[in-house]
Backbone:
């Protein structure tokens, strides 16, 4: 995976609308996906329009400060935290590496509607590339299903 893959994911995995029910569905799908594919539990956070919609800790997972850091990274960069990881040696992102407010690693993904970042989905508990990929795989499934139903 490289920066071009991440840019393509960000362009294609966008929403027409976002609701609390959709946040719950995404969380349930991430929970199911992680249980089927990995042995490690994850923490999940969905933040939308200025508020935390949902936070879920899988059985055996302790509180994760990385969720907040990934969330902040997505909201301030308006990109996935993996995008920032690939661009970490450029511009403003260099200073973020030393700041515990941010996470320069995968696992945070933007909720985009009409080209604007309205929130973030964050996963923490696996290696950072897997945290990112879990979100991408679930969004591909959910957004494809959503487009078929419309």
Residues:
């Amino acid at each position: 995976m490289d920066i071009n893959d991440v840019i393509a994911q960000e362009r294609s995995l966008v929403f027409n609308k976002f609701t609390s029910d959709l946040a719950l569905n995404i969380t349930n799908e991430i929970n199911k996906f992680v249980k089927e594919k990995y042995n490690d539990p994850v923490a999940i956070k969905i933040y939308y329009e200025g508020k935390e919609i949902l936070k879920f800790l899988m059985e055996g997972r302790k509180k994760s400060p990385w969720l907040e850091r990934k969330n902040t990274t997505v909201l301030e960069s308006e990109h996935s935290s993996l995008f920032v990881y690939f661009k970490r040696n450029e511009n403003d992102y260099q200073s973020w590496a030393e700041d515990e407010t941010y996470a320069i690693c995968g696992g945070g993904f933007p909720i985009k509607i009409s080209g604007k970042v309205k929130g973030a989905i964050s996963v923490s508990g696996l290696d950072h590339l897997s945290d990112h990929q879990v979100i991408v795989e679930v969004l591909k499934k959910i957004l494809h299903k959503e487009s078929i139903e419309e």
